[in-house]
Amino acid sequence: MPRDGVVKVEVSSPVVRDALLDGCAGLIQFENEHREQSTQRTNGFDPVQCAQRIVLATTLDEQLVAGYPVVDVPVEIADPVARTLVELIAEEVDSLASDKQRRDAILARTNELLESLVALDAGIVTDREPPS
After folding, report:
1. pLDDT tens per residue across span 90-119
2. Which contacts of 103-107 are long-range, i.e. CB under 8 A and separated by 24 or more positions?
3. Considering the entire predicted model, what is its pTM?
């Protein structure tokens, strides 16, 4: 659940850590590529929000590199980070068809990624709910 605009996500394995790092890198790359557009305020990009998302992704990246067992994923970037997890889960599921000998390892990695995705999704959904 989000607390103060962050979702606490357990970094239960190197697979989860690497997936979250990929999510940060993808978000930072996307924001950097669209920074020029954001300064012109075209295509819905806001330069302040663009810079803020880069800072948030960089901060999350630093927590992951430092080896924190639980990281704070700001809800502002939780959705793009979660999309990366979904892509990696799809890749793992696809590999089941071609690599049946490593089925247990693939399922274990997929399970770890799914647990992190569920935690992120719960935070995203809760953050979007109207206050009571």
Report:
1. 998 888 888 778 888 889 999 999 999 998
2. none
3. 0.81
